[in-house]
Amino acid sequence: MRQLAAIAAFAVAVALLPGLTGSGVVLNIAIMTLYAALLGQAWNILAGFGGQFSFGHAVFFGTGAYAAAVLQARFGWNAWATLPAALALGAAVGAFIGTLSFRYGLRGSYFALVTLAFAEVFRILANNVQFTGAGVGLMVKLQPGAAHFQFADKAGYLHVILAFVVVGLLVSWWLKHSRYGAWLQAVRDNEDSAAALGVNVFAVKLQAIMLSGALTAAAGVFYVQYFQYIDPSLAYGPAVSVEALLGPIIGGLGTIWGPILGATVLHLLGEATRGLVSSLPGVNLVVYGALLVLMIMFLPRGIIGLVK
Amino acid sequence: MLHIINFAHGAALMVALYGVFFLHQKAGLDPYLSLPVMVPAMFVAGYALYRFVVAKASHGKDENILLVTLGVAIVLENVALTLWKSDTRTIETGYTFTTVAIGPAMIALPKLVAFAGAAIVAALLLAMMRGTDLGRAIRACAKERQGARLVGIDVEHVFAMSFGIGLACLGAAACFLLPAYYVNPQVGNGFVLIAFTIVVLGGMGSFAGALLGGLLVGVVESIGGLYLGESLGQIGIFLIFIAVLLFRPQGLFGARA
Amino acid sequence: MIEAVSLSKRFGGLAAVQDVSLLVHPGTITALIGPNGAGKTTLFHLLSGFLAPDSGKVILEGRDITGLSPHVICRLGMTRTFQIVQPFAAQTVRENIAVGSHLHHRGRREAIAAAEEVARRVGLHAQLDKPASSLTIAGRKRLELARALATGPRLLLLDEVLAGLNPQEINEVLPVVRGIRDAGVTVLLIEHVMQAVMNLCEHVWVLSNGRLIAEGAPREIAAHPQVIEAYLGHGTAERLLRAAHA
Asked: Which residues of B touch A (CB under 8 A)?
């Protein structure tokens, strides 16, 4: 209950942010942080709660992004209407990869490599298929108005991404307080023991990758609406896969607040280094990579592990 | 070999390529003559990387090794980007455009040297694995880590040595590669998954398997490129990679564990 | 209760279990004994669905369960513990046991309440909030037992639940196992601690080199010439007799 109250307080506080500052720069940082947090929350479901480390979450992100872009640009769908379709496709891709990987017992780094390879396969396909716009990418038509998922000011986007993140928080809370969550964490810690206690290990992992895939696809839909453009490298390139795992690892794996905490720390650090040495490209990524290495070496339980 | 999956392999190759590039640029050293500098330097770097970073980060889980080497790769790649920008650089030597006729085929000399160099490195590695105490220790650790520890093998040292040898090979590869290739901060990325594919295809820890796997990947890439075009052609490699991991994780040539 | 019908399992050239048929009666504590490498744990794997037999059948309460998955078998009322304890190390004792009790309780609150009840039965209630990784070996063995019990089994397979415990700890766990049986759960256990076998069990099966070589009441087994000569050795036989009279 305390956690639910904290989630509500978080939602209200962030929602009021545009009232405090009209600065587009600040709001943009907040939006990109929440967007990274959403990716992290989705990844955290599968890796943090389920123990299955994916290195190719771009496969779900890109699928969601392309589902939205293609349905809007080619079929004239309303942007909001593409959201459920994108979620379903993200879950379907998750079911496909999960069925193959878990049926054949892939674990640990082998699972990570297979997800990475799937993301590459999708990237190459998107690069070569005409209806995704191939290498040129797809532009979404400018149609201002909340009814079209496009907002004149940043506040609108902030509220939408905040809503997604709150859903992610509620899902994480549910995993901590439900039978399914207990089973998923049992599978993470020991598959044989879980099976002996009546847990259908395959089904639990499959449901986790579908849930994670759907939530990641939501981030893809948001990306397309915010930037109104997608191409194969943005959609399926390794950058998204890395962004998804950085937040939870730095904040705290398998925790409710870890992904948000990690994403916030990363983005603030990134902005700070960019502010200090703005002329040098890639310097914020150096910080991200170094932080990843240091966290795994010295704080494998993340920042939250310090508090507990 | 030891089931350490090193994500930083591509980035390390990139660093080695820059090393060769600057040795040529600043010291006027021929790429092939950089070998005695690059190989030991990369060996030391690899040994240290394992000892001081990877070993301390693993906490007994192989996912952590994957993550920490990913972090190292991100750092290396972006340090390169910061220092040297994203420009693609090549070097020109007296023999860059020399070709050699072998039967009916005209082959660029640098490519021929690269091929011969790779063959020699492979032969040396094979000899080392078969004939030296270190090689035997590596194989022992690969088979049975706990047992190797019990018979008095310093397992951490063996792991660090093999990590160092892996990077030393990259140092050699960079010397052979640069005259026929180029370098930029992202150059290593293309090699990471291909290297994994080759190793998985051949069977983790199988030496002949890796060579055959390399050959197969080359053939698949060429045929794919021929029939599907340059960019779609790469898909074959990844599909093979996925299929092998799923259906024959011991590799095409490995024995079922 | 459970019946194995000529079960066989080979690993490459090794015949781990050969043509084993055995029967466990409801409401009893039955032991499966034999030297290391006799195939006891393999037999447990076959009974509980972790391995599929090459041939033969497993019948649970009249129903053929051969080849079913472990989680399905658990839902049918049979579960097992592991020789090498496998706690969910990142979770507390309460959360560990609740994984088991969730099998029959969907709600979190009911599952936790049921878990606490089971913890009381096995003497873990003082340690409910501790992380499972902080427990001693004895504590982990109890946790293994508690998790399995929490699934509400009618048949429980215990793989060396006493191994690694000191005599005092063994004496504490024995009444727990007896209490489980008294509550109506049939128990089949693999055990090396003969004192426990003699004290607890109504019936004993002896496995050697993958084959059953004897069965009977503990005293009969202790006096069984084939068991003594071919397998246990004279010293062990005497100890068994002494234990039986103790």
From this structure: 5, 53, 56-57, 59, 61-68, 70-75, 77-79, 81-82, 85-86, 185, 189, 193, 196, 200, 229, 231-232, 234-235, 238-239, 241-242, 245-247, 249
Binned at pLDDT 50, 70 and 90, residue C241 comes out as low
Residue A55 CA to residue A211 CA, distance in Å, equals 17
How many CA atoms does the CB half-sphere of B232 hold within 13 Å?
A: 10
Beta-bridge partner residues of B102: B105
CA distance readout (Å), A116 to A60, A291, B37: 11, 22, 34
Question: pLDDT per residue over A116-168, tens digit each?
Answer: 999 989 998 888 887 877 777 788 877 777 777 887 788 889 999 999 999 99
Alpha carbons B62 and A181: distance in angstroms, whole number: 24
From A18's Cα to the closest Cα of chain B, the distance in A is 34
Instruction: Identify whether the C-beta of residue C177 lies closer than 8 Å to the C-beta of residue C187.
Output: yes
Q: In this predicted structure, which of A221-225, B187-191, C64-68 has the lowest mean pLDDT?
A: B187-191
Chain C nearest CA to A177, separation (Å): 6
Distance separating alpha carbons of residues B84 and A57, to the nearest angstrom: 30
Radius of gyration of chain C (CA): 18
pTM of the model: 0.87
User: What is the spatial distance between Cα B247 and Cα A104, in angstroms, rounded to a whole number?
Assistant: 7
For residue B121, the surrounding DSSP H or E stretch is helix B109-131
How far, in Å, CA of A200 to CA of A23, rounded?
Answer: 50
Strand C63-64 versus strand C55-60 pairing type: antiparallel
ipTM score for this prediction: 0.87
Contact B55, B174 (CB under 8 A): no
Return the pLDDT at C223. 77
